[in-house]
Write a structure and sequence with these properties.
16 helices, about 425 residues, 2 domains, homodimer, Aldehyde Dehydrogenase, Chain A, domain 2, Aldehyde Dehydrogenase, Chain A, domain 1, seven-stranded parallel beta sheet, alpha/beta
Chain lengths: ~425, ~425
């Protein structure tokens, strides 16, 4: 495939086959979809050796290209990781199937009965980087929602992804479903992504899973709707009426339970009247955990370990053991800070004051808003969605963790008995 | 405003003010929003004379530019139409306010409580043609959903739209809400639309209301999510098990009750075993109503008034007293026809067979799927949404008639009691 035209043709071929497969999937029974998920899981485990061999090719090439150790770690497929992929597919099989569910079926004055039926989106394009387990996770969740997928992973994981796709497609066929319900883009040409982003006749939605530059490119080029995940600049605001114990526990957990996740706390806001009492013990815990602290002037006066924060710090998603700390003059300043510097991902208030808690729920326009809980809970599993394809920071279609429901839509259904409009 | 840069600056100014106003609106009480809607309605009626005068300027200019009579008709504001605009706003005021509604609040095994809260989208950009009543209708519905709007109507209606905006903004101020919650783009430069479609920092969603070329341009240029409405190539399929009376009533009503609406029947499909019995009486009713018929070979053999349909006819949204008629060899061929030629808007089956009715609901991937009812019911009022901003034929966010719910979204809310993740 050397010309741009060939790539376009190749991608349109994938698109056509995905569209056809999606029509079959939309009508597939829950039983068939779950059987496919189980068969995929079994096949992945049976083929573990072949998967590790394919992955070794990617790992070797990655080492030869001097990929960063963190990237190599994400790329690696171990027997344990393969089992965990299979387990993930079995968990998706165990989830309830929302497709076909009819809700809100009500009689109207005209006599017709109107309701909504949950339906698949159709074809989902997923563009991701490095981690090959996304191939199985994303394909499995999309399948359960009745969607066909076109998966475009990172070029460094191509052999791993192709090997995983073999098992997935074998699982689909074992259950009598079309193998083309899951297709992996087998060219590493950059143009292939461009074609995927533009072929609105074959793709209903694109889910980019990756860093800022990937999401920026997708946003710029897509002619297809996208469910996107931008930064997670998450805040915890410790209110004047906060409970001391809860405030410390949440501030520590939200920052230190894991550093590289998008729902990790990046900026802690503390109401001035509580700063002297609450900041030092939290700072001690951060220091003990090796978390670098960057603070406003008031913070630095109270916390000897803190260095001065710059304006840029408030916008930063560190994804690292670094936290920014700011003392605010009350609730309004906290909300204004979150509104200006936040990324509408996840923000929490710690307070015992019910009126302020209720107000925070309304005032903060983020995909998850929390009262007295750690931002780390913003996650499909924790929310009971079963699994997630990502966390949407967009405002259309789906906000927050996106599970099966976010990968589906609702159409109107109308039942009459010969009813006509007058 | 003569340079592209000036226009961009002007549009960004509108965007910034809309974004600020949206923050206030998101927190506005139902009482304040409803008071504003009532005040807008009263103001429109009080200023009817000024509105008619402004509209006369547009009408005179339209006549001087030789606008088609149908366009002039849509452009005209009469006292009756002004009353009807005001009435529409009062009806929106009477609708329930879904904003702030918390649903599905459930305890999770971790002890946190997770639910969803309905929230506004933020800033809605509406691009429309001709009919100035859209200014009031769209602004009213968006306001109820807590959104700020930027309205860009057709250049031929500019004075009318500006005059309506004066009343709307007066109504907002009377209720203590920011006037900038509703802004009309006051330049007729085409570049203004381009700027609106690109300013993702200020606009959360664009709703194009207009013909194919407008929607095509918006789809091509937008860097902002869109809720779009493409063609309404609607079908009624008369199944082998159809009731004769219901079939005739629905086929006639769906086509002849109104010709220019998107939910009007364009292609009637009849199962072969019923064609001889059912097509002639329907054709007689169409002929009596002056509806031109274009049929497949079998149809033409049964219906003397029919002329042969071309392949292009099956794709056509006539929006006129024309219908295409096709005899199909059973259910599968009907579904295949709808899938190939339809526009995923509204399609109906007429049948007494419950299994086929259930199957049709699943097989047909349209925003509204009906059993034994006229496609003309696909409408926000008929569905009980209260009002609609349009009918979405997209698959993301909202399908079918889009009312207040489609102009809002849901965020996750989490309540804990100091809960942290382990």
């Amino acid at each position: 495939m050397d010309t741009a035209l060939d790539i376009e043709k190749y991608m349109h071929g994938l698109g056509r086959r995905a569209r056809d497969a999606a029509k079959t999937l939309a009508r597939a029974s829950t039983k068939a979809k779950d059987a496919a998920l189980q068969a995929m899981a079994a096949h992945l485990e049976e083929e573990a050796e072949a998967l590790v061999a394919a992955n070794t090719r990617d790992m070797d090439a990655g080492r030869a290209r001097d990929l960063a150790p963190a990237l190599l770690d994400r790329l690696e497929l171990t027997p344990a990781r393969i089992r965990s992929m299979a387990e993930g597919l079995r968990q998706v099989a165990a989830l309830a199937d929302p497709i076909g569910e009819i809700t809100d079926l009500r009689y109207r004055p005209s006599g017709i009965q109107v309701g909504k039926m949950r339906v698949p989106l159709g074809v989902v394009g997923i563009i991701y980087e490095s981690r090959p387990n996304v191939t199985a996770d994303a394909a499995g969740l999309c399948l359960k929602a009745g969607n066909a997928t076109i998966l475009r992973g990172g070029s460094e994981a191509l052999h791993s992804n192709q090997a995983i796709a073999v098992s997935i497609r074998a699982g689909l066929q074992a259950a009598g479903l079309p193998a083309d319900a899951v297709q992996v883009v087998e060219t590493t040409e950059r143009n292939a992504v461009g074609a995927l982003l533009r072929m609105a006749e074959y793709v209903d939605v694109i889910v980019p899973r990756g860093g800022k530059s990937l999401v920026a490119r997708v946003t710029q080029e897509a002619r297809v709707p996208i469910i996107k995940h931008l930064d997670g600049v998450c805040h915890v605001y410790i209110d004047a009426a906060a409970d001391h114990e809860k405030a410390v526990a949440i501030a520590v957990n939200a920052k230190t339970q894991r550093y590289g996740t998008c729902n990790t706390l990046e900026t802690l806001l503390v109401e001035r009247s509580r700063a002297e009492e609450i900041l030092p013990p939290i700072a001690a815990r951060y220091a003990a955990a090796g978390v670098e602290m960057r603070g406003c002037e008031s913070t630095c006066a109270l916390v000897p370990q803190a260095v001065p924060a710059s304006e840029a710090d408030w916008y930063e998603e560190y994804l690292a053991p670094i936290v920014s700390l700011r003392v605010v003059d009350g609730y309004d300043e906290a909300v204004a800070h979150i509104s200006q510097y936040g990324s509408q991902h996840t923000d929490a208030i710690v307070t015992e004051n019910v009126s302020r808690a209720r107000q925070f729920m309304i005032d903060v326009d983020s995909s998850s808003v929390m009262v007295n809980a750690s931002t780390r809970f913003a996650d499909g599993f924790e929310y009971g969605l079963g699994a997630e394809i990502g966390i949407s920071t967009g405002k259309i279609h789906a906000r927050g963790p996106v599970g099966i429901e976010g990968l589906s839509s609702q159409k109107f259904v109308v039942f009459g008995d010969g009813h006509v409009r007058t």
